[in-house]
Design a protein that fits this description.
Distance between the termini: 33 Å
Number of strands: 9
CATH superfamily: P-loop containing nucleotide triphosphate hydrolases
Strand content: 15-25%
CATH class: Alpha Beta
Number of domains: 1
Shape: globular
Order of helices and strands: EEEHEEHHHEHEHEEH
Largest sheet: 6 strands, mixed
Number of helices: 7
Length: 244
């Protein structure tokens, strides 16, 4: 379990990005951080990942600070090495941990298979579509078998068809991997489809305004379900109240 307790972040120059933010993530949870641009969603993700340090408060994973081995991170851009193949990009975090190539390749190929890229192991990023590059990025984050997967608007730049396909695939990966997911988005529709809990954040300084629990069982048909439309409307009303 990850607990975020009274976390604040003030940047040089006095810009207060987060104030008194508390959150609890259970094992195998899937939460969406939802809010307007600049509300501190990505800042909170970077603090959880250890890429930045809070000005106040603390974060604990099972009573200790999160370790790099606990965490996989997927950025908004795929951030792949353009000169490397898909399998070498996925191999990178294992190589940095001292895992030999011969030992790593079964894990690399399993991660690529999990995201639907079997047969593209030797392709370089320039030969892949935007959606496929993002799949490589997700495979790279999963190959170390993290307990916590952090995703910072990974589908924002994709077309709607590809975004819907990857959202459905992500849910399959999450169920199979059993990890906890924190997914940053500014899309109410995406949050409602993906997350078991939707966490609404206020404009800067970002604070948690409300948490909402989903009763949906997401599948390809979920977007046609009246319950999905009702949940989207509920989130929209709550977000309007948070922004008022």
């Amino acid at each position: 379990m990850l607990t975020v307790s009274n976390v604040g972040r003030i940047f040089p120059g006095g810009v207060e990005a987060l104030r008194d933010t508390s959150l609890r993530l259970d094992e195998s949870d899937f939460i969406a951080l939802l809010g307007p641009s600049g509300c501190g969603k990505s800042t909170l993700l970077r603090l959880i990942a250890g890429l930045d340090q809070p000005t106040s408060g603390r974060m604990l994973w099972d009573g200790r600070p999160p370790a790099p081995g606990d965490i996989g991170f997927v950025f908004q851009d795929a951030t792949l090495l353009p000169w490397s193949t898909a399998e070498d990009n996925v191999f990178l975090p294992l190589r940095l941990r001292g895992v030999s190539r011969s030992e790593a390749m079964p894990m690399v190929h399993a991660a690529l298979h999990r995201v639907g890229l079997t047969g593209f192991e030797t392709a370089r990023p320039r030969a892949l579509s935007g959606g496929m590059r993002m799949r490589v990025s997700i495979a790279r984050a999963l190959v170390t078998r993290p307990r916590l997967l952090l995703m910072d608007e990974p589908f924002a730049a994709l077309d709607e068809f590809t975004r819907h396909k990857l959202q459905a695939d992500l849910l399959d990966v999450w169920r199979e991997a059993g990890c906890t997911v924190v997914f940053v988005t500014h899309s109410i529709y995406e949050a409602a489809f993906l997350a078991r809990r939707v966490v609404l954040m206020t404009p800067r300084p970002g604070k948690i305004a409300r948490e909402m629990t989903s009763a949906l069982q997401p599948a390809a048909e979920t977007r046609l379900d009246p319950a999905y439309a009702a949940f989207v409307a509920e989130i929209s009303r709550a977000m309007q109240a948070a922004l008022a």
